[in-house]
Amino acid sequence: MTGPKLMRRKADRIDELAGSGGTSLAADAVRRMLRSPVAITGAVITVLFVLLAILSPFLAPKNPFIPYDALKNTLRPDSIPGPMPGFVLGSDQNGYDFFSRLLVGSQQTLIVGVCATLIGVFFGMVIGGLAGAFGGWVDTLLMRFTDILLAIPSLLLAISIAALFSHGTQWTVIVAVAVVSVPIFARLLRGAMLAQRASDHVLAATALGVRRRTIVFRHMLPNSMGPVIVQATLTLATSIIDAAALSFLGLGDSDPSRAEWGLMLGRSQDYLDVKPELAFYPAIAIILVALGFTLLGESLREALDPKNRR
Question: Which of 53, 63, 138, 227 supports an S-S bond with 110, CB 3.0-4.6 Å?
Answer without folding.
Answer: 53
